[in-house]
Amino acid sequence: MATIPARRLLLTTNTTTTTTISGLAARPCLRASAPHVSASLRAAFSSRRHVAAARTGVTGVRQQGLSRHQQQQTAGRSIRWSTTSATGSKIWTFEEIQSLSTSPSSESKATLIDVREPGELQSTGRIPGAVNVPITTWPDSFHISEAEFEDRFGFARPPPDAEVVFYCKAGVRSRAAAGIAREAGWKDVGEYPGSWIEWSGKGGEVQRLCGMG
Fold this sequence. Notes:
The chain is of the alpha/beta class and 213 residues long. The chain is 36% helix and 9% strand. It contains eight helices and six strands. A six-stranded mixed β-sheet has the order 1-2-6-5-3-4, with helices on both faces. Strand 3, helix 5 and strand 4 (131-132) form a beta-alpha-beta unit. Helix 2 packs antiparallel against helix 7 (172-183) and helix 3 packs across helix 7 (172-183). The longest helix is centred in the N-terminal third of the chain and has 17 residues, at 58-74. The protein is globular, with a radius of gyration of 31 Å. Mean pLDDT is 73; it is low at 6-48 and 50-82.
C-alpha cells in the first residue's frame, strides 16, 4: 500500500462537507457602520452657537484662561506689551488698560466693556470708564438691533468698526464675549485676560457704583 507523505494534505470538498484546516473554521467578517447623525440636530446646535459660547462654551477655555492668569502672577513684574492671541483678539496689559481708563473719552478710541453680572459690579466696583454688558445673562447683545441694545443697557452700542476691549473677573467670560462680538461682525476686538483679579491685585483705580442707572 502506498504511503502518503505527512507534508501532503488531501482536501476534499463537496456540497455537504466543509473543510477544516488545522482546526480553524472560516468565519464571516463583521462590519460595523457609524451611527447616523441627524442633520436637524446639527443645525439646531449650530443656530445657537453664539448663545452656547457664553453659557457653555466658556468651559472649553476655562483651563487655558486660568493658566494664563497664573502665568502672569508668577512670571514676575516685567511689563508685557499687547500682542495678538491665537483667536484673533488683541491682548491688553494692565498698563494699557490703565492708560485707556484714564484717557478722556474724546481721546479714547476703544470702548472698555465689563461683561460681569451687575451684582458683581455692585460688590467690587469696575474699572473707570467701563460699560457693563453682562454676557452670561445677555449672550445675544451683539446680535440684536442697535435700538434694542440701547433700550436694554441705557447706552449706545459701539459700531462694528469701533474697537472694543472685554474684561470680566478672570478672563474666561471676556474671551467668550470677544468670540461672540467677532461672530457678529466686530473686527477690532481686544481682551484683558488679567481682568478684575489682576486689576484689583495691582491696585488699579476702582469706580464704585451708586446705582444701576
